[in-house]
Each structure stands twice: as structure tokens, then as C-alpha cells.
Amino acid sequence: MKVFIIAPAAAGLILAAACGKDAPPPADARETTTEVTVVPVTHPGGAERGSPVEPVPIGLVSFERAESSFTARRYDEAVGLFTVYTRDTPQNPWGFYMLGLSTWKSGDRIGAAQAFRQALQLDSSHVKSRLNLSRVLIEDGRPDEALAQLELVRVADSTLGEVHRLIARAHDTRGDVELAIACYQRAIVLDTGDVWAMNNLGVLLIQQGRAGEALGPLVRATTLRSTSPVFQNNLGTALEATGHRIAAGIAYGAALAADSTYEKARISLERTSTLDDSVPDSPIDLDLVVREFASQIERWRQEQQPEREQVSPEPQS
Fold it and tell me: According to DSSP H, which parts of 92-228 are helical?
């Protein structure tokens, strides 16, 4: 029986330091940001919306220059540059969008929300600004406001998996656990490659004492993105909680292989690797877990299909 599919490089990371038999730590946080897609500048009020043109320097600051600071993770510098850019180019929503991202990354949620709202004032259909505004509101403990923003996106495009994932996060923040789980399931059905929805669902299930149910989404997430230390650590937590100690150790090792400074994974790896043989361990076939999770997604898909309307046949003349 094949037992493990976690990165083999983790096997060399087993540590020998003694540690107690504490319960596994809580799973790590859910997503906080989204991958950023930076688009070329469009002439405000000129070319048709969305048609790209080369960034045009405005005064001493161009979109390209400010973007390069953001890409280099010099977020405070990017805030200053995009502040100047939006002052000189006040009709371009992408400038305010990038100002919002930069401000958020620099730790200012209030300023970020304001920038995203300014982008939306210029273009109410600016989906990225609305989604990231909702993320900021969730982080700020304002899930009801986030849900109001997300509902606008959902009504416009109910097939967008990302919006259902964020709706799930908002419901989770409100304490509506079962509704959050259902929304994560919807997000995964719509996008079977949404690793953050799978991770978030796994974390929520672990927190609810349902680690066995968390294995499917977390194994699938690590299969799709094996170099994510957060995903591997969360999988280790679920495996350890369900009695798969050796497999958990390999997952923690994979987390450390991806990020050698990951303290939670190091402590967990020490704990699982120093338990003696008297502690029972149950082998697990992770390939089988992935296949079973794929079947589960299909069951969710069938359950989420709207019931067909019953139409009576028209009478024949």
C-alpha cells in the first residue's frame, strides 16, 4: 500500500530533540490576501475600458515606477508613489486599486479600504477592488459590510468561485460555521483548483473537531501546491489529530523544507518524531484520500444543482 505522497525531501528533516505528548497546535490562518494581477494603465476617459497602453509618466511618477516598488515589496515606498500617481491621474481606478493593495500591505486597513472605495467610485464594476475591499473588511472584523460588497459581485457573476470563498470567510467570522462550510464547498465545486478554499475549509473543520473531514481538502491542496508551508503544516495538524503520526511528521517536514523559519512546523515535527513506539500510528494512503475527495466534490456538485422546474406539457389541439 502506498502510504505517503508528501514531498520526500522532508524525510531528512526529522529532529531528535525530546518533546512532550502535547495535542497538535491549531491549524494556521486562512488566506489574507489574493495574488495580485497588475494591468497596464489605460488612458482615463480615452481608450475603451480595458484596452492596454504603455504606462505614461505623469510628473515624476509613472504607474510603472510605482508598480515596480510594489512588486519589490517596498510597500511604504509604493504607497507614496501611488499616492502621487492617483493625485495626478485621478480618473484611473487601477491607480487607486494599487494604492489600496500597497496601503493594505503596509498595515493600514483604513487607508486601504478608502483607496478601494475610490476605485469603485470611478468604476463600480471593478471586481478586484470590491473583492479586496471585502478582505479588508473581514480582517477588520466587519463581516456584515463585507457580505454586502460580496453580494454585489455574486449577483453579477455567481459562477466566480473566489466570491463564494470570501463569502465563506465572512460567514466564518460571523460564527455561521455550517453556512461557511457550504460556501467553501460551493467555491471548490466552481473551481476545483482553488487551493485557498480547500485550505480554509480544512482549517475550519479542524477547529470544529472534524479533522477526519479536513484530510480530503488539505491533501488535495498540498498535492496542487506542495511548496506551501502553511498548507503542509495544516495537513500535518489534521493527520496528527487523526492518529497518522508518521505521515504528520512528513507533512511538518515538508513545511520546514519550504520555509526553514516556520517555528510551528519545527515544534510539531519535534513532537511527532520523538514519540516512542508505544504511541499507536495508523498508516494512510493519501492517493486514496485524493480520489475520495474528488468523488466528494462531484457529490457536492450534484447536491448544488438547482432543481429543474416541473413544466406541464402544453395541451395538443
Answer: 93-105, 109-122, 127-139, 143-156, 161-174, 177-190, 195-207, 211-224
